[in-house]
């Protein structure tokens, strides 16, 4: 999901070793010969193993390739920038054009939402649309790995990917040293101080480490979990850690944060606990969540000494 337009990002979010280890294994796997069709997922029945898939979800694109379904993917949307071999196109996931999508002759389209009648429009061409909403929890992400595996004829790979990702995340969290004192954090989506509460996917990932989220306030559900904080509120909360999910989109780093008016007084800044994250990994529910968990673990270990 794009990090280039913060307000649009928030609206979209409201609407709706390394992770490469299981990913590499799955990507080399042969199709699951035990998978049977038709399969029904939610309201969608897929009659046969799809051979021409269009993905309009960066998270789904990453997962499809991790499952070994990459050879079945014929087109991905403009924001699906990983993996490099994905067949990138100008297709928009924000305002999908049914005619442009249909030009790729898909037998299955995967999207994270359908607010424009996309499924109905594509159904007229005989194309089925599978909506896989943005996961709100890690368990939902694992379940969607399995569902995408079933939908593409890679059920065993989907189940294996879910098990391996869950095991990796659990192991990293368990192996992270407990801080000597409780730690609080500020998670930045952009430099206008949009953040994520514990009611969001990213918030729940960080909650696994026992951290206090300053964005929660009195209502973690406010603004769909993505409130815009004020500089005054952040300074008053004085978080122990600052996580930046606006490094690639907006050029933020420890130096730019420390140069903000008054921010040099923050505990996180003074103690060198401002941690840059990869914007894309930090905003997707793909198997690369393991990389995010590993980065948070390293930050907590460093700040908790």
Structure description:
There is one protein chain. With 305 residues, the chain is an alpha/beta fold. It has 13 helices and ten strands. The chain has helices at 6-15, 20-27, 58-67, 98-102, 118-123, 138-152, 155-175, 201-207, 231-237, 247-250, 254-258, 267-270, 289-303, and strands spanning 39-41, 44-46, 53-55, 73-76, 108-111, 128-131, 184-188, 212-213, 241-244, 274-276. Strands 4-3-5-6 form a four-stranded parallel beta sheet. The chain has a four-stranded parallel beta sheet with strand order 8-7-9-10. The chain has a two-stranded antiparallel sheet with strand order 1-2. Helix 8 links the parallel strand 7 and strand 8 (212-213). The two termini are 34 Å apart. Residues 1-34 have low confidence and may be disordered.
What keywords describe this structure?
single chain; ABC_transptr_periplasmic_BD; elongated; alpha/beta; 305 residues; Vit_B12_bind_prot; ABC transporter substrate-binding protein; four-stranded parallel sheet
Short description:
Residues 1-19 form the signal peptide. It contains 13 helices and ten strands. The chain is of the alpha/beta class and 305 residues long.
């Amino acid at each position: 999901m794009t990090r280039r337009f913060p307000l649009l990002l928030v609206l979209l979010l409201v609407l709706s070793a390394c992770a490469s280890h299981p990913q590499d294994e799955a990507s080399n796997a042969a199709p699951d010969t035990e998978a049977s069709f038709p399969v029904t997922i939610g309201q969608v029945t897929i009659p046969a193993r799809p051979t021409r898939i269009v993905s309009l979800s960066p998270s789904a694109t990453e997962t499809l390739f991790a499952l070994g379904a990459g050879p079945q993917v014929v087109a991905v949307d403009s924001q699906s920038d990983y993996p490099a071999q994905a067949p990138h196109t100008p297709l928009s996931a924000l305002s999908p054009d049914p005619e442009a999508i249909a030009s790729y002759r898909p037998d299955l389209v995967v999207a994270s939402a359908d607010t424009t009648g996309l499924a109905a429009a594509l159904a007229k061409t005989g194309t089925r649309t599978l909506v896989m909403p943005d996961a709100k929890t890690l368990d939902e992400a694992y379940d969607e790995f399995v569902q995408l595996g079933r939908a593409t004829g890679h059920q065993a790979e989907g189940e294996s990917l879910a098990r391996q990702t869950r095991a990796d995340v659990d192991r990293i969290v368990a192996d992270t040293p407990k801080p000597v004192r409780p730690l609080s954090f500020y998670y930045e989506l952009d430099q206008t101080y949009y953040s994520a509460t514990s009611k969001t996917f990213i918030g729940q990932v960080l909650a696994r480490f026992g951290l206090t989220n300053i964005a929660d306030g009195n209502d973690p559900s406010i603004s769909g979990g993505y409130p815009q904080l004020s500089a005054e509120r952040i300074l008053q909360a004085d978080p122990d850690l600052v996580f930046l999910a606006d490094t690639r989109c907006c050029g933020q780093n420890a130096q730019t944060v420390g140069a903000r008016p008054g921010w040099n007084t923050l505990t996180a800044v003074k103690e060198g606990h401002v941690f840059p994250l990869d914007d894309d990994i930090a905003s997707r529910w793909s198997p690369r969540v393991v990389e995010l968990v590993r980065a948070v673990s390293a930050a907590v270990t460093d700040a908790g000494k």
